[in-house]
Amino acid sequence: xxxxxxxxxxxxxxxxxxxxxxxxxxxxxxxxxxxxxxxxxxxxxxxxxxxxxxxxxxxxxxxxxxxxxxxxxxxxxxxxxxxxxxxxxxxxxxxxxxxxxxxxxxxxxxxxxxxxxxxxxxxxxxxxxxxxxxxxxxxxxxxxxxxxxxxxxxxxxxxxxxxxxxxxxxxxxxxxxxxxxxxxxxxxxxxxxxxxxxxxxxxxxxxxxxxxxxxxxxxxxxxxxxxxxxxxxxxxxxxxxxxxxxxxxxxxxxxxxxxxxxxxxxxxxxxxxxxxxxxxxxxxxxxxxxxxxxxxxxxxxxxxxxxxxxxxxxxxxxxxxxxxxxxxxxxxxxxxxxxxxxxxxxxxxxxxxxxxxxxxxxxxxxxxxxxxxxxxxxxxxxxxxxxxxxxxxxxxxxxxxxxxxxxxxxxxxxxxxxxxxxxxxxxxxxxxxxxxxxxxxxxxxxxxxxxxxxxxxxxxxxxx
Length: 464
Ligand SMILES: Cc1cc2nc3c(=O)[nH]c(=O)nc-3n(C[C@H](O)[C@H](O)[C@H](O)COP(=O)(O)OP(=O)(O)OC[C@H]3O[C@@H](n4cnc5c(N)ncnc54)[C@H](O)[C@@H]3O)c2cc1C
Known about the structure:
Helix content is 34%, strand content 21%. The protein is an alpha+beta fold and 464 residues long.
């Protein structure tokens, strides 16, 4: 239970963090709440500069029974950073140091407020990259990505954040430091506390530093936009292309026609609008090139993989920077949400062999609820993660329960997941409870109680 923050508490916090790191009242206005307008509802933000400040703050909060909501880049999509008056929002914006990049060991040690973009820029100078990429790259922080176990466009080959983290440091609920800043891949030392903290959305500990694995950067790439008559055909072609001995697929993103056509139209990308009539699903395949002049050779191999696949429709080899950036814009731009605001979003994993049946079945069941509902779907093809928006001329908020049932019911027992990469936060809590195997929920509650007996770290997130 959080106490309200009176002037005595404010003075105590200033003594711990310095006046310049305690923000309340109108001084909170300087911070952008980011993706969720309720992110800064605590109206009380602290910006510690070191792990020892985080420790002292957490110890004080524990003594005073004040709860803490950690926040990084504020790009989370499930309400995990929401706060209420009486709580303290701990912003990691001053934990921004890139402490080490080791090209031989291929890892970086960073403070948790470093953005993915900043880490990638520093690593690129040494020919390396974090091996993970998402649309929020310039805002999302390493701490937030760890807390949400972010996935993104390279997860199918490099894994999600869970696989990118070699070690981490976190301040626990009692103010002690969990120091596991190992820089090697193999370390079997009993229960993996680090992996419990990854994906815990700020409910088990506050991540202050991390050791991130790095991968060689691929600066020379070839990009293709390919249309198919089904997702199954797209997957079969992808498998063929990946199977080619000298082809390395770096990204494989899928868009169903409604998303592709509407977004290209709204962005006035006329040649892409014309291409939209060529198929039902559209896939961006990016491959590594050894030499820039290999493009035509690579195109031959990629197109051979497509041509051998039933359901392949058409392809564009994208040679100019402009063509490439337009296609990625169609994948990443949220024009659909600007055009139809107030849509309901879902982030699910559907096993590859069931993708077509799932999306087609969804169209039918949504149509039965209300024939004016519109479905937009896209995702990370390589790992069968779908991002779905259900919307319409009028936001379908009132139909939320029925729509969610259409989205989730077919996934139950399918081997897929109702929450692929964005986490639970507050948005997916109900589904977690409905779906959660009782043993899972019991263990999760025990873990929370063991890590945070007073329930002060990001309370009522993940578990209601
Ligand atoms: C345009 C866009 C594209 C996106 N694309 C993808 C994608 O492809 N794949 C994907 O997985 N996600 C994607 N996301 C969502 C993704 O979860 C976030 O971008 C990112 O992982 C969150 O980082 P953040 O620093 O913004 O965290 P925040 O939003 O600040 O916080 C998110 C959660 O982490 C907790 N947290 C933050 N920092 C810490 C810390 N230091 N210690 C403990 N807990 C902490 C917060 O309490 C909250 O629960 C996208 C979001 C946007 C807006």
